[in-house]
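>> received
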Amino acid sequence: MFTMQSSFTKNIPYHLLVSKIALATLIIGHSDAFCMHVEHDVENITSYHNANKKIHPIDSMHLLDIDHNYSLQRDGDDSSDHNIIVRGETNDDIFGGESIGREDLISSSDIALVSSRGGNVSNNTVIMSDNATITHNLYGGYSEGHSDIINSSTSTVLNKGGNTYQNNVKISDSTINNDVYGGYSLSWSYLDNSSSKETYGTGGDVYRNSLNITKTSIKHNVYGGYSQGFGYLVNSSTDTLSEKGGNVSNNTVTLNDSFISNNVYGGYSSGYSYIDNSSSKETDSTGGNVSNNNVNIRNTTIEQNVYGGYSESYGYIDKSSTYRMSAISGNSSRNHVTISDGARVKGNIYGGYTIAYGTGKYPNSSSFIGGSATQNIVTLIGDKITINGDIYGGFSRGENGIGDMFSGNRLNLQEFRGTVNGIHNFEYYNYILPKDVINGMTLIKIHGNEAVDLSKTKQSVGMVNDGNRLNVGDKIILIDKVTNAPDYSHLTVNQGFFTIYDVSLRQEQEGDHPAYILRVNGNHSDDVSGNPAGHLNPISNAFSEGRAAGVTFINQGSDFIADYGVQTAQSILQENKNSFIPFLITNSSSSHYGTNPYFNLQGFNLAAGLAAGHRLENGNTITLGSFFENGQSKYNSSNRILSTPVQSSGNIDYLGTGILFRIAFAGTEFKKNNNNSLSGLYIDTSMRTGQAKLDFFSRDIIDGEGYRGRYNSKTIYYSLHSEIGYIFNLTEKQLLDIYSRALLTEINGDTVVIGQDRLHFNPFKSKRLRIGSRYTYSYNKTFTPYSGIAYEHEFKGDINADAYGFTLNRPSLKGNTGVLTFGFTLKPIEAKAALSIDISADAYIGARKGSSGTFKINYAF
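>> returned
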């Protein structure tokens, strides 16, 4: 069996022994020059090696020396759920989980198929700490499909690395003298003095692996995810050599307070073909797609480059012949690199990188095509970052064609202020001005010779809510060396949710070079240089609409108790006896308020309690009751502010208790009927208190730092209603109730947090008067329909709120509403007169529009 190591292999590990590993928990301690101590729970391990070798079960190796037309296949087992703890020092590779399928062929001929596949490797954990040192590599998960064909011939060689996913590596206070991988998948095909009609290798998919590295020195590279298909021919021939890297996605690398000697990759995929003194009719190398990987670097030094995603296809020919060579790299998209808090990158930063290339003497028919590198994000945070090189949103290279490396790439500059060599291939530039921004400040200095090309770019500017304020005429140099910059005569800059500035962005000569400059405009014709330029952001007025919806729903709870709670409780008196009754009433409603703004409420109310009735010696009847209540509602609001539609939505929930009282005065009846129906003058009242919760969210309200409009409010409410009325007994079956009702609701003030802003709502008061009538017809002993009409006027109802000295517009519930009611009372069991069910519907026109439905049930004991 033959293995090799060379500089071009980019530190691919090649093993003298291979295995299927089944570790449950492995503690690696200190090792000396000859042996390594291992505490283990391992089956089928039959041999230990010295500290320069790995430990493997011998039975996984499969070496063949045959001369028959056989098909040979060896697959590695899956490897998952291992927990590896590393302490001390070891001269070995470390694996969280490992699976190797290996089929080697020596001095054989006429073999139909040689195939090896690595198993899937997942959910493994490696924890390294306490000044541990590793001389070789560390892998969270490792899968390899490997074939060495030596002095042999075969029709097909087929190798595949397994999928490697959801492995986790946590390293602190340690040293690693080689590479670190969150997940690794390799296909290895090696032909030495051999022949094959078809040779295929494919790396597995590598995804959702994570590296979290703190206070650690790594002497080579860091990879969140790595997949490679590698083919090597020496003194051999094949009709087809095809090597593909797998897809690498959703891996995360987090570096804190560390030192990396080489490069950092969120994701890496490579298709790699190497032909030495050999021949191949067709040679294809393909990199996989690399997407959605994340690199987060804080207070860490990177000696070379940082790549969010890297896809590579490579072909090499030396002293060889091939009819056609093709190298196509995959796409590198939607990767995210974040640099912050004292980080230093001595090389370049790439959101996405894709490259297809060849070296040696390849044929003229060769094709090298780079993929696309789009929708990547690079974020720079703060002013303590050092970047010696260039920053690229996307980079694509291919001798015969390249993909899109501009579209959707985004550069976020969050209070960044510093120097870089150059900036390239970003469609979107998003600036958050530093908190200490002042007139004349320069944010980005370009020390390279190439100006930043801003053609076809889109620019946005924001400010932190608690930073310095800008004045009319202030000038900020965003980038000091640009070309082809877009001109914005009127651009809006948000400072938090509530303060807004009108600015311009233009390319202007500044010293020796054109610069990209922000100038603060005045808001009014009489504004002069030096005066504060901020004014209230009109879109922030929409925040009051959530409060308006909340207080409206609490008011509906007042109507619910006044309309149905007292009536339900006093219905016991129709039996002319003293007793207690539990009662339960529910209500479902849908209402619409206003025009612009307007909001819709869909809610549910419930009240449950206990009531008692008593007839006094003078004939007056009294009803007393207590109850608890709950209301739940969803709302949505729509507004148009400066021709901009603003949608919002949220939930309202209140929970409270209350008491009710009613007195009916004897001797005031219009006339008596034999059915003992109550008539005459009455007064009733109720009092409620409780806690109300409200949440608000709008996708259309975004502050300068990218926070969306969202808040939660919790406050106390109080409510009182008082009513005087007169019931006319028109006939034995007909009643007419004429009433006048006053309702008062108060809701405490509250201060809510929105992003990093604070908004204060003042206490709310509602004063309403309702005048109405209700007609009832007793069709028979079990069925009583009724109808009503009322007029209501809201005297107050303004929503008052302020932030940073600005007063928001005041949505108001003030206005007139007409109410129409239709319903019936049903006693489903004639012999059980104490049981009754009431169903009604209300329609609203005027300030309140919409409808509601009510269901109530009571039973007298």
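>> The first strand starts at residue 25 and ends at 31.
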